[in-house]
Write a structure and sequence with these properties.
Shape: elongated
Strand content: 5-15%
Number of helices: 22
Number of strands: 12
Structural class: alpha+beta
Radius of gyration: 39 Å
Distance between the termini: 131 Å
Strand order of the largest sheet: 7-12-8-9-10-11
Length: about 650
């Protein structure tokens, strides 16, 4: 007998008993059957509901959000309210969406900056401001110090002897370092190497991190912060470069107005990003002017006669004209001899364009003679300085003035420019933020490869979400603005008194009034690009009020820029409007030109080009830096800071 038959024989009595039960107990068996079906049905419904809820949780974001014309869902749609009149049952926080900066809704107690997203936003904005402040402060270094940092030879910043520069001697060529940068060029570039306007990528970074964490866990504050900080670090960089030494048509004898006009003309003529071309043009102009002055004896004599007629009698004038004519002829003979050697080197060019090449050779010779290092014998006898020279400060000052008088009228000791290249990578760049490899998300790569993952990389859907988020008006939608990141607090009376005690006792009352007013304004007037005051004092100007249109950096509070602050401070404290100067260029022409060593509290230090700026000098610190008060664009308000401010213009306005 097989095993299967044995099993059937074993179960046969049980089957018979079940048949007998069903025949005798029909009602009970019917109820049991339907009860079993009902339990199976209930379990199926519960299981299906769980699957449905899970699927909804994975697909909360809707494609319709990215297709609708509005960038942010209206509050009425994302506020969940139970069907009851009791306010305590209302859910006041918005539901998360892929194109919303969701962390600003977490732990918020009335102030958006107190939320998780607000604090991260504030930290990032302060970091960007601090980094820019370091870059801008580096422009206050001397060319000599900057050249050392870049590993350049000293010859890269040597010009001619400058009697106005401290520490220069006509006998020591190595001391003829150019004292300051003439122009400071700021160049901003994106991730593709294209030049752009000054920009911030803070919103790009936060929007990108918000979309990424939303697809994973938008409540993971630690992950969000790590992504943001790594993106910022890897998307910012800068470099410095010093342009070649160049010469203009003479600047030693120019007054402030002439310097300002020349500066404006140079800035207008020079193309953006082309300091080398500007240098070549200025060299050519200088050479052309010099060659035209010595082109003919008659023109030189006419210019000389015109000058002499205003200063001397007719008889002595003729004698001096004769003497100068002989000197001019002698100089021309020497120039022709040197030109012969120059012409021999460029013979191939002279074959093609003989007339142009001859003029070019003369220009080259003139440029070479201008760039040549001056020796003591080339300078006027009165300007020679020896080791035995001694005397009082008055005598030394008189000697310096005499040095300047004996220099040619078109004498230029040389200039050099600084270029700062700042790279800021944005999300929309071809080689943008999403191409940066992040260490902070490497542990999620394996999870993202699984079929149930919501993250499928930077595709059309997630890219569109980032773009919509970063293009929103964060001030209107979240209450966040660059102006709300201001951290400068007003000075206490004790702090102001401490600064005032450090001022010299013999300082004029006007200067003291100016400094006191400027210190009293610290932390009370936000920075606003192009901002000017309408009336004296704080009242009536509505500083700090929210305005509808933001400046180029997104600031939304009414305030002043650096030149606007200076004009307002002088106007309010000592009733000097400075002709309502509206720019640093206009401030160059105010007051009297002074040297850096002659600065007193209340004087101005001005950088008119590049990232133009102006500060009000207070005093020298122990480590040789300036203590100054200024409208600080990177801090967003008036502040007192230690600055190097090795700017080209120093102006004294008050007695």
């Amino acid at each position: 007998m097989s095993k299967s038959r044995k099993k059937k024989g074993k179960w046969k009595p049980a089957i018979e008993k079940a048949k007998l039960f069903l025949k005798s107990k029909k009602k009970e068996s019917f109820l049991l059957f339907f009860l079993s079906l009902f339990m199976i049905l209930c379990l199926s419904i519960v299981y299906a509901q769980k699957l449905h809820d899970k699927q909804n949780a994975l697909n909360k974001s809707s494609d319709s959000l990215l297709k609708t014309s509005s960038s942010v869902t209206e509050k009425g749609k994302w506020t969940n309210t139970l069907h009851t009149d009791r306010k305590e049952d209302e859910f006041l926080n918005p539901r998360p969406f892929i194109d919303r900066y969701n962390l600003v809704d977490i732990r918020q107690d009335g102030n958006p900056l107190d939320s998780v997203g607000g604090r991260i936003y504030q930290e990032l904005m302060e970091r960007e401001s601090a980094d820019l402040a370091k870059i801008y402060d580096s422009t206050g270094d001397t060319p000599e110090h900057t050249a050392k940092l870049l590993g350049l030879k000293r010859s890269a910043i040597l010009g001619r002897y400058n009697p106005q520069a401290a520490g220069q001697s006509p006998d020591q060529k190595n001391s003829w370092a150019i004292p300051y940068f003439k122009n400071i060029h700021y160049r901003y570039y994106n991730g593709d190497g294209k030049e752009i306007q000054e920009s911030s990528n803070v919103k790009d970074i936060l929007a990108m991190a918000s979309v990424y964490t939303y697809q994973h866990n938008y409540l993971d504050e630690e992950r969000f912060r790590a992504i943001v900080n790594e993106l910022y670090t890897k998307s910012h960089s800068y470099s410095l470069s010093i342009g070649p030494v160049y010469y203009d048509q003479g600047c030693i004898h120019k007054d402030a107005k002439e310097e300002m006009l020349a500066e404006e003309a140079a800035n207008t003529a020079a193309p953006v990003g082309g300091e080398t071309k500007a240098s070549e043009e200025s060299r050519a102009e200088s050479a052309s002017e010099k060659s035209s002055e010595t082109a003919t004896d008659s023109k030189a004599n006419q210019n000389t006669n015109a000058t002499k007629e205003n200063k001397q009698a007719q008889e002595s004038k003729q004698a001096q004209e004769s003497k100068q004519t002989q000197e001019t002829k002698s100089n021309q003979e020497n120039s022709q001899k040197s030109n012969a050697g120059e012409a021999g080197e460029s013979s191939s060019e002279s074959k093609a364009l003989p007339e142009q090449t001859e003029k070019s050779a003369e220009n080259k010779e003139n440029i070479a003679s201008q760039n040549a290092e001056l020796s003591a014998s080339n300078l006027p006898k009165e300007s020679k300085v020896t080791k035995e020279t001694t005397g009082t400060k008055a005598e030394q000052k008189a000697s310096s003035i005499q040095d300047q008088k004996n220099l040619p009228k078109n004498y230029c000791p040389g200039h050099v420019d600084l270029t700062i290249k700042i790279t800021v990578i944005g999300f929309d760049d071809e080689n943008g933020l999403r191409n940066i490899q992040l260490d902070s998300i490497k542990d999620l790569e394996e999870q993202d490869q699984k079929p149930g993952s919501r993250w499928h990389g930077w595709n059309d859907y997630t890219i569109a979400a980032v773009k919509r988020l970063k293009e929103q008006d964060w001030f209107k939608d979240y209450g966040l603005s660059i102006s709300s990141v201001e951290k400068k607090s007003p000075l206490t009376e004790e702090e102001i008194s401490s600064y005032m005690k450090d001022l010299p006792a013999d300082l004029s009352e006007e200067r003291k009034a100016l400094i006191h007013f400027a210190l009293s304004s610290v932390g009370k007037v936000p920075y606003f690009y192009g901002g000017k005051a309408g009336v004296k004092g704080l009242e009536g100007n509505h500083f700090g009020a929210t305005i509808s249109s933001s400046d180029y950096k997104g600031r939304n509070r009414k305030g002043l820029d650096c030149s606007g602050f200076v004009q307002w401070a002088y106007w309010s404290s000592v009733d000097r409007s400075l002709d309502f100067a509206s720019s640093t260029q206009e401030l160059i022409g105010k007051g009297q030109k002074i040297k850096r060593s002659e600065l007193k509290a209340g004087d101005l230090i001005i950088q008119p080009s590049g990232e133009s700026h102006v500060v009000v000098f207070i005093k020298w610190t122990k480590d040789g830096k300036m203590l100054a008060v200024h409208e600080n664009g990177t801090a967003g308000n008036i502040s007192v800071d230690e600055v190097q401010a090795n700017y080209p213009y120093y102006r004294s306005i008050l007695p």
